[in-house]
Amino acid sequence: MEPTFARAERTPTLIASVSRALTVLDCIGSASRPLSAKVIARATALSLGTTYNVLRTLAHSNYVVQDIDGFVLGPAHPAMAADGGAVALAQGRAVLNGIRDELRVATYLSRYVDGEIEMVDIVDGPLSPRVDLWVGLQDGAHATAFGKQILAVLDPAARRDYITRHPLHELTPYTISSPREFLHRLEARPAVSVDDQEYALGFTCLAVPVASSSWLGALAISFPSGSACESARGNVRAEYAKVLQDGATQLAMVLGM
User: From the CB of residue 100, how many other CB atoms can be counted at a distance below 10 Å?
Assistant: First the structure.
């Protein structure tokens, strides 16, 4: 009869709890946004109770962190520990959440990388719907407040190069499609850029720059045109701009680390 230990060597013991934890981490790590416990349970085919137990254990060891919108990988996870930028973005999301909750508007963080404008993160909610980015930023960034804000802080040569490579498509009747007029407005380098239904009808957006030694981007918010904040224009926009600028200062410190 074959010894028991010999059979054990050929059939490794699988620890179910470890397997479940790895499954949950893979699920969270592959997502582009925070996931709720219910979403994780459905995606992993685990019971909700088991999912909560696994998340509680992982959170205790900082392998995951509970964001207001769900769970994200934490600083103890090897992927995050190896990528300081990922940790900074996770910390920066708290700033976006704070602005959304204070102003009840959707909040956006974008960045200029290798000559292109890209969206980094969007935070929205039931009372603060996001703008449907129906046209990709490759073809529509010029019509957004954050796109204009990023282009405004570039040097003139880089700004003209971007316009040359990205035609100013007319997305709505309010879009500025004349390169001469567009560049003229950017030369003023506004502290707050505005998109009045230039990208999407029915939405107004404000944006301020986010800049550090290693980061060039913009922080923006959107809200329905014709809303209370729109009808009060000057005063409310000034208040919104102050909140955005304070948030941009925090983000610059976090993202510049």
Answer: 21
